[in-house]
Design a protein that fits this description.
With about 600 residues, the chain is an alpha/beta fold. The protein is built from 16 helices and 21 strands.
């Protein structure tokens, strides 16, 4: 089945008063909302400002999901299904009319009576009406005119997609947590979907994206299902998956399950049932296993105090105790179910075992918070279940929140690289996995000068969906409503996908032409903390030709641009660090060069 995700697309509507708001007022509101909300996300509070400023009803009826099979289509018709979400229309028993348009022409349409909050309708597009080349497709819906003469309502938020003819699309599946899910984004803005789009266009094959991720997912819940039997996941259904196909239409609503291994199981089952193979799996996981709220942030969740040890346990699957110390914490925590279990190498290997023996991109973590997130607006550690010694520990740890998030980013990314390397080494059919990132720096974090994450709870495209779905489906609606804050925004998601397409291994896998010389990044294996480290780029042992610009990413969240093929950098902490450099030629072509091994500062 073609790409699926959780929300429609288009700008979040606002009233005329919002449109006239001064830029100063907008900045004040944004900073204020971010300040209150970050306190909630990190410390579990329940601030009043987490409530929506206004319910964005203009987005409804909201097209929740559109399936088109096959798309691209080689022959015969395209069979489609549209899911429309509108709790108010369901309560009133309204009839909704919907339409599917491409290139200014309506290809399908119909009506559905909203007997439940989600209404479903099927459609068929004859092959003769399918465009030969990739064409933008829009799907939207409105309340139909009533029998007593009431005029039809406005059309709600538009779902954007594409349609085209083709026989061998690049098929990309995505599994993971809210980062891969793309919290706050419309489905065609999320970096796995953007990666599929870029690969489909670069190869000329077109693309299909299948999304099994869900916000809040743990990497592995070792006791769910019982005995950790992944096949048993196929017998479970989630309220975030109203059509039961394994892809989470309501993945915007946070929940720890299905874990990443269950998501992979469902991706494999759907591929086998559809008779197709996958070309690529985009995967992440393990941040929720050690609790991003109190675990990474302040370290009060049992088992998260020693962050390097916790990351080794959850991301690498090494070192779990027989008993989960966090199983009874009295607050929202993925550590309750995600403690211990399998690590990322096992997940990578399971992904590669899916039909088609797909390649695997492990999406490195980015800087959600960093030293550049100034000020870090945390006002209180108060939340139900945090009192006494926990409360004192939480307050004492506030100053180290940004440092712990930076440390987590470094440790998790190192674990991902180790897992990909180990999976490749154990492979019987050659290397197939790479840990890749969006080349993020500390200046891209929340409230930083070049932030590429959502800084407020109400400005992301998925906010309209959360205003209705979180109260209906989430056990922690306030946390759910504000969950987009700190996740890559539209620009951040694009940066992930663009960086993936620069990765030389990905380009080799899909036979994409090189955009620069076959260069080597030379770095020492060891260096002293605080000492200058010299790095250089060479081509066949010699400096590159003149005319290149070099954008150095040192692996510690810092960067530098130069016109020279050498640079020096001092690390202020122990590694390992993996330096990278993007070379840009005079023709604008970019190529990514990655150090062959990490550098340890000690």
């Amino acid at each position: 089945m073609p790409r699926k995700a959780g929300t429609g697309a288009g700008a979040v509507p606002g009233g005329p008063g919002a449109a006239r708001r001064s830029s100063a007022a907008r900045r004040f509101a944004a900073v204020g909302a971010a300040a209150v909300l970050l306190g909630q996300l990190l410390l579990g509070g329940h601030p009043a400002a987490a409530q929506p400023l206004a319910l964005p009803g203009a987005a409804f009826p909201l097209v929740l999901d559109v399936d088109m099979t096959p798309n691209p289509v080689c022959s015969g018709p395209v069979h489609g299904r549209v899911e429309i979400y509108d709790p108010a229309a369901a309560k009133a028993g309204d009839t909704v009319e919907w339409r599917v348009r491409a290139g200014g022409k309506q290809l399908a349409g119909g009506r559905v009576t909203m007997a439940a909050t989600v209404g479903t309708a099927k459609f068929t597009i004859p092959y003769a009406q399918v465009p030969a080349t990739e064409t933008a497709l829009q799907v939207d819906a409105r309340i139909a005119a009533s029998s007593d003469g009431e005029a039809p309502g406005h059309y709600g938020k538009v779902w954007r997609d594409t349609i085209r003819r083709g026989c061998h699309p690049v098929r990309v599946a995505s599994v993971g947590d809210s980062v891969v899910w793309g919290q706050g984004l419309d489905h065609d803005q999320k970096f796995p979907d953007l990666t599929a789009q870029l690969l489909g266009r670069a190869t000329g094959r077109g693309f299909q994206h299948l999304d099994y991720s869900i916000s809040g997912a743990v990497l592995d819940a070792p006791h769910l299902p019982a005995g950790n039997k992944d096949a048993d996941c196929l017998r479970t259904t989630e309220k975030q998956d109203p059509d039961g196909d394994g892809e989470m239409e309501f993945g915007e609503v946070t929940q720890q399950m299905p874990d990443v291994f269950c998501q992979l199981e469902k991706a494999g089952a759907q591929a086998r049932a559809g008779g197709y193979g996958l070309d690529l799996v985009v995967i992440n996981g393990c941040i929720n296993d050690l609790d991003p709220f109190f675990g990474i942030g302040v370290g009060i969740t049992p088992g998260s105090e020693d962050l390097p040890k916790a990351v080794k346990r959850e991301c690498s699957g090494i070192g779990a105790a027989a008993e989960n110390p966090a199983k009874n914490v009295p607050y929202f925590s993925g550590a309750k179910v995600g403690y211990g279990g399998r690590g990322m190498q096992a997940a990578i290997e399971k992904a590669h075992s899916l039909p088609g023996r797909p390649k695997v991109i492990v999406a490195d973590f980015y800087y959600a918070l960093s030293r550049s997130s100034s000020p870090i607006p945390v006002r209180t550690c108060s939340t139900p279940g945090v009192d006494g010694a926990r409360l004192a520990s939480c307050k004492a740890a506030l100053g180290g929140v940004a440092e712990r998030y930076e440390q987590y980013t470094q440790l998790a990314n190192a674990a991902y690289h180790q897992a990909a390397t180990a999976a490749n080494k154990a492979s019987a059919d050659g290397p197939y996995a790479v840990a890749a990132d969006g080349l993020f720096t500390v200046d891209n974090a929340l409230l930083s000068r070049d932030s590429k994450v959502w800084n407020t709870p109400v400005t992301d495209p998925a906010f309209p969906l959360r205003t209705r779905a979180c109260p209906e489906l989430s056990a922690t609606p306030l946390q759910c409503l504000s969950a987009a804050v700190g996740h890559p925004d539209i620009e951040g998601a694009r940066q992930y996908a663009d960086a993936f397409l620069l990765n030389p291994k990905v380009r080799d896998w899909f036979r994409l032409p090189r955009q620069g010389p076959r260069a080597q990044l030379n770095v020492p294996e060891h260096a002293g903390v605080g000492s200058a480290v010299r790095m250089s780029v060479t081509v066949h042992g010699k400096p590159p030709a003149a005319g290149y610009r070099y954008h150095w990413y040192f692996g510690d969240g810092t960067q530098q641009e130069t016109g020279e093929a050498t640079v020096t950098h001092a690390y202020d902490r122990n590694g390992p660090w993996l330096p990278r450099v993007v070379m840009t030629g005079q023709d604008g072509g970019k190529s990514l060069v990655e150090a062959a091994r990490g550098l340890t500062a000690d």
